[in-house]
Design goal:
It is a single chain. Strands 4-7-1-8 form a four-stranded antiparallel beta sheet. Helix content is about 25%, strand content about 35%. The longest helix is centred in the C-terminal third of the chain and has 14 residues, at about 80-90. It has a single domain (about 5-120), classed as Alpha-Beta Plaits, CATH 3.30.70. Helix 1 packs antiparallel against helix 2. It is α+β, with helices and mostly antiparallel strands.
Length: about 120
Amino acid sequence: MQAARSGVLLRAFIGEADRATRDILSCAIFRAAQAAGLAGATVLHGPLGYGGSRRVNSEFIVDAPGNLPVVVEIIDAEERIQAFLPQLTQLINSGLVTMEEVRMFRCGRRTLDASASAERGP
């Protein structure tokens, strides 16, 4: 196990119907984070949620509006997250972004350096 280090967890709360130009917004954010070389990103789909409008979006309600919640989580060092924020704000037309300090470390077999994993193979 590596020693824990400080980082920032960014969460973007958006809807599955949200778009960035022609792309699905969650995919556009994910790809932008990957292109920026950020440490990690995950897109989570929620079955139930509401936002500022108080309109409930649910997969459990047949006549719901059809814009289920999506959370994009991105984690990296604070300075890298801060550098990514201008790009993120250009992508998101409407949504909520939160950031919190975290302690992070890698564990398991993938903590080996690249040369050791190259020698072992996949």
